[in-house]
Amino acid sequence: MILCFCEGIGSRDGTAKKDKDFKGKAQKQVQFNPGQTRATWRVRILSDGQHEQSETFQVVLSEPVLAALEFPAVTTVEIVDPGDGTARGTVPTSVLSYSDYISRPEDHTSVIRFDKDEREKMCRVVIIDDSLYEEKETFHVLLSMPMGGRIGSEFPGAQVTIIPDKDDGKY
């Protein structure tokens, strides 16, 4: 029986800051048994009482022992406070009355292919016109899980802003 150990799991601040927006106790060792591909690491999201857009931080595995880290060794976590006026996504099969856009599925249909030296691509996102008056709302489209390349750290995604529709009744 061969066990895989990582010498550490921890976090890396992004727009969300440790001990201000979240708490996650770094661990010195994480054990993966043979065939195990997932492990749980608890993170507590903190409410700071401020109106903010979504914030992100990263969870990082490091220094494997008797093994190699495969993709992904780092994952990004997004903190979204529904009370802060951000848009809400939904899957096409369950469009709800409070949904603002249709989320892209996390499967092969959402793959965006970049040719050599290509730096921009269109990514279709469907905005739902629910005819309700709502203030300006935002959401992020993030690139993840690169295959055969890498995602630049400066622009890993884009913020989309849904502006109020002048034809919607203001209540």
TrEMBL record:
Every Calx-beta domain range: 11-82, 110-150
Family matches, as SUPFAM superfamilies: CalX-like
Spans through the membrane: none
Keyword vocabulary terms for this entry: Calcium, Repeat, Signal
GO-annotated biological processes: anatomical structure morphogenesis; cell communication
GO CC terms of this entry: membrane
Pfam family, one: Calx-beta
Protein name: Calx-beta domain-containing protein
Organism: Eschrichtius robustus
Lineage, broadest ranks: Eukaryota, Metazoa, Chordata, Craniata, Vertebrata
